[in-house]
Fold this sequence. Notes:
Shape: globular
Order of helices and strands: EEHHEEEEEH
Strand content: 35-45%
Number of helices: 3
Amino acid sequence: MHEPSSGRFENGAHYLPVRIYYEDTDFSGAVYHANYLKFFERGRSDFLRAAGVGHVMLLQRPDPCAFAVTHIDMRFLRAATIDDALQVRTKFCDIRGPRIIIEQALLRGETTLCTASVEICCVTPSQNGAGSARRPPKELLEALKPYLSA
């Protein structure tokens, strides 16, 4: 069975290819603004998977770990449109206690369409969906260390 691509690393950044489909667009043919969040989420998830630390592995630990997005600052620069072949660039920049700082961009070739500064927090998941903040587990820190840019 052929596994889908989790992207590639280049100069400390992770690049995930994405294609724009009709379902991603609004009535004007441009990508609906909320879908950029989905592309960035996929970029972060596939970065972790390619670095050897998947979400399932983190949840199955004796002390489970998950992530909660605490802040996103997005800048929409140009529109993505149907059939575009794009790249999500993800760079993990810094870890401060339970917080992880990430910079992302959606690219069409060399043209930046959208950028995002993202802060996520490591949490211990709970039954009601809330979680308490915690430091990232050692395995996550070790997997991310070679990629941190700050």
